[in-house]
Amino acid sequence: MSVQQSHIRNFCIxxxxxxxxxxxxxxxxxxxxxxxxxxxxxxxxxxxxxxxERGITIxxxxxxxxxxxxxxxxxxxxxxxxxxxxxxxxxxxxALAACEGALLVVDATQGVQxxxxxxxxxALDHDLAVIPVINKIDxxxxxxxxxxxxxxxxxxxxxxxxxxxxxxxxxxxxxxxxVVARVPPPHGDPAAPxxxxxxxxxxxSYRGVIAYVRVVDGTLRPGQEIRLFATGxxxxxxxxxVFRPRPEAAEALTSGAVGFLAASMKHVSDCRVGxxxxxxxxxxxxxxxxYRPAKPxxxxxxxxxxxxxxxxxxxxxxxxxxxxAALTFEPETSVAxxxxxxxxxxxxxxxxxxxxxxEREYGLDLxxxxxxxxxxxxxxxxxxxxxxxxxxxxxADRRLEIxxxxxxxxxxxxxxxxxxLMELCGQRRGVYVGMEYLDPTRVxxxxxxxxxxxxxxxxxxxxxxxxxxATLDYxxxxxxxxxxxxxxxxxxxxxxxxxxxxxxxxxxQGRGRRxxxxxxxxxxxQQFEVALQAAIGAKIIARENIPPVRKDVLAKCYGGxxxxxxxxxxxxxxxxxxxxxxxxVEIPQEAxxxxxxx
Amino acid sequence: xxxxGAWGLYVHIPFxxxxxxxxxxxxxxxxxxxxxxxxxxxxxLVRELEGxxxxxxxxxxxYGGGTPTVVPLAELHERLRHRLxxxxxxxxxxxxxxxxxxxxxxxxxxxxxxxSLGLQxxxxxxxxxVHRLHTWDDFLAAYRAARDAGFDNVNVDLMYGLPRQSPxxxxxxxxxVCALAPEHISAYGxxxxxxxxxxxxxxxLPDDDAxxxxxxxxxxxxxxxxxxxxxxxxxxxTGRECRHNLLxxxxxxxxxLGVGAASQDESRRWTHAAGLAAYCAAVEAGKRPPIRDQxxxxxxxxxxxxxLRLSEGVAEADVDLGRFGQAIDVxxxxxxLQWRQGRLRLTDAGVPVANQVWxxxx
Lengths: 598, 362
Hints:
The complex is a heterodimer of chains A (598) and B (362).
Chain A: E1 8-15, H1 21-31, H2 49-54, E2 62-68, E3 74-80, H3 89-97, E4 101-107, H4 114-125, E5 129-135, H5 144-153, E6 162-163, H6 172-182, E7 195-204, E8 208-217, E9 219-220, E10 225-228, E11 234-236, E12 239-243, E13 247-249, E14 253-254, E15 258-262, E16 276-279, E17 298-304, H7 310-322, E18 328-334, E19 338-345, H8 348-361, E20 366-368, E21 375-379, E22 384-387, E23 399-414, H9 418-427, E24 431-439, E25 442-450, H10 451-454, H11 458-465, E26 471-482, E27 484-491, E28 494-495, E29 501-504, H12 505-522, E30 530-536, E31 539-546, H13 562-577, E32 579-582, E33 585-588, H14 591-597
Parallel strand pairs in A: 1-3, 1-4, 4-5, 5-6
Antiparallel strand pairs in A: 2-3, 7-8, 7-16, 8-15, 9-14, 10-11, 10-16, 12-13, 12-15, 17-19, 17-20, 18-19, 21-22, 21-23, 23-25, 23-26, 24-25, 27-28, 27-29, 27-30, 30-31, 32-33
Chain B: E1 7-13, E2 15-16, E3 28-29, H1 32-35, H2 37-51, E4 58-65, H3 73-80, E5 84-94, H4 101-110, E6 114-120, H5 124-129, H6 136-148, E7 154-160, H7 167-180, E8 184-189, H8 197-201, H9 208-224, E9 228-231, E10 234-236, H10 243-249, E11 253-257, E12 262-264, E13 268-272, H11 276-284, E14 291-296, H12 299-307, E15 314-315, H13 321-334, E16 337-340, E17 343-346, H14 354-358
């Protein structure tokens, strides 16, 4: 690719979820003839099925669009897709770092949302030229003028906002022209030593890791020896190319270009998002700024329901890790669940995705324990240990202090719900930081909250207390000491380690009671009466009993329909197979996640 | 086992005057529209049997439904009985209110020699609750008419765990029925199946514990009244087991005619689809009826899952110990199974929780 830098435009689309980012990307691809309408498999940028089902984009990708502008010039427009979920904050920042401009898409019926803002601030941090697009203007409930006013409050010239409907193809030409006119061309030094930013990567079983790169300075070509700054590892480049959106080989990627490189790298951790690629023989003096190793924030135990699947689970995790540098795992043993792995995730969504892939693609039956954050425990003598499993918590008489990770959360909400959200944050041990009126009706509320308190249903609660309007964005903001205790659950008198959790002392009593109530409803009756107890240390704080099973028999076999009878038994057996035998008691998979939900 | 030998004939009559709230069987309510189907359907049944290539004669026949007695059953039986062996047991299910002295006499004359009367409960308010169309008095009239017509082998079907049924109601039902001294009593725990009216309405039902109590009541009451508990839901006077149902539990062969009917031969089991029109059209065209389901048999598992329903259990020689020995040992250890006189059986404690045993024997 040796397009003049003056004819390259690198841009991304930032939008709140559902504001139409994917549809707009589809229209741009279609309009520039990169793919015909027939070839367009709806939303081509969302590659994995799983993502499509969830309507979110996990892996950023880039598409090269060749566009002949009204000025007669042919431009190479690189559209870089960004993930749209709070769990992937860092990945978004790397994608933005590969761009000079951004389309800020705002839904004409919903207006500016928290995520829109969070991404906008991020874009401004990266000095991107931001082009506001008011989308979905075809909808009867569209209020483009109200959104224009909001954009003006954010400092945009209200007249520069483009009115569009990606669905109807309205405004698409305007958008392309504006990208050419307003997004600055790259200004790297083609003669300088190679520096290319890795903004995403994925594992391909034939070619190894495919790295998505933005070349800043110099040239990248096949045969070149490259070095990754963060890992120091060196590889020989086998291929470079661009996505249109299918991969096409190229002779070289020169400064300003966006594309991919393959270099027989075996593992995505060889080539981490945010790292800088340079020439091994003529290395650049410094890496591009902003690299941060992917850091898991949420940890949970993954155990095979059948102990015999342990090896398979390890293999599956290894394979997923090839493609997911943020996933960590190490072997762990639970008295209740046997051999499994402690896995680290960016957030709960990431955890869900991994769990679902393990079950769906690898056919594994898994038990996931309640996720935990990583605590810092100061023990006698002043030493600090990090634990991400409640079982590893040093006993009360040995520890001086437990500190937990805290996030800074920005919530964007219509003004009338501020009270409800402040109440929610208060319940979740939040500390008020600030409140900012963006206009008379819209408020940005900032709190510091323990990560553990927003892990599970905070987002849902936020939505339900704001009739769906409030939105959330957060980032890690250090550690704070708190009065935390370990809440244990005893089943039939024996503590079940996988049901333990670390909770705030003031909440322990209520949680303990709700937890045993939930477990009583979830654990099927057994052959004998089963006692369920919640305890802090030796003190029992709640108790429930599950009476023994008394009747479980298929009464009738109608007209000799044995097949149907066997099917009912097979179904029951399937349910049983998904239970874990803990001591003499069979506990269903879901029970282990309930710890988090009460 | 089944090689050659005895087989039973099951004939499904899908018509009903009304669908009971708990029913999820293949049945159509016999309004004027569906009544038009009856002659065509009965002829199709006859043709289906003619086309079946099963050798020899059936040793039992069973008219099930639906409510078989809403069709001219005596005439139907006259058209089918040539495939029955001499002395065959021939059962018809009947609901009170759909039979009278004449029809019962006609059935008996045609060769139907066992009657299974659906009573369910002796309390009219409980019957009304699940929209049974008869009262206790209707049942009594039908029962007496059956005796008068010469039926000397009568079963009464009962249900426990009905909405708002009290333990006292259940005990009263058992007492009133035993006083009539039928040869056979079936007592089924109500199971609320998806797709039924009960499932949709969720009226207050006795809980599992209450159902278990009622089952225990039935076991002790009927035992004291001289009935043998020969199968999980069935009791009888000595020698009055339902021979047709024994074919099922002993894993033999049976041929099912009609919509929704299930069959089993040496190697397979299959179930017909439920549609009346498609069934009639296929049979009239000389084809086999549409199949909803079919599967290969798993004799080693079937013999346990079915045979353990019977108090006689399963002979050791028929138990695949290589495959199931370990699971059997576990349940013997729990006290839910026992070996006695060379046979494997459910214990008294194992009977009410038999599913928990069977799931390990699949």
